[in-house]
Amino acid sequence: MPHFLDPHMYSLDNPELWVLVGLIIFFAIVIMAGVPKLVAGKLDEQAAKIQSELDEAARLRTEAEALLAQIRAEKAEAEAQAAEMLRAAEADARRLEAEAKVKLEESMARRQALAERRIEQAEAQAMAEVKASATDLAAKAAEQILAERLAGQKSDPLLESAIAQLSTRLN
Fold this sequence. Notes:
mainly alpha
């Protein structure tokens, strides 16, 4: 038989009855004082606070995802710019190399032409010196031959002055 159907349960000297009565009174006081409303209010506050934190976390996550997408886009743009700068630098290097090669070839051509002109001048000077030496030798030889031919003949002062002037005029 269940314990609450026992007649001894409802006697005034039963301590369990007084515990039950005190418990019922306690619950009545708690309900009348509005404790369930306070607890429900606190729970609602806590739920609202947690919900606002969740909303804030969702907002921050959305912002972080947007920022991450922006950073990825900026990274891609920076990589594209770096690649373009690298291509431009390589093109500039090739262009500068070609210009330097052309300038070097022009410089070499100018130096070769200058060297050829100097060689031609040196050849012309050597030819002039050889001609002058040959003229001097021819004049001396002619003077000597004429002197030997005329040695047997009587000397002519006019002829001798012409021979003396011959060496100065041939140079």
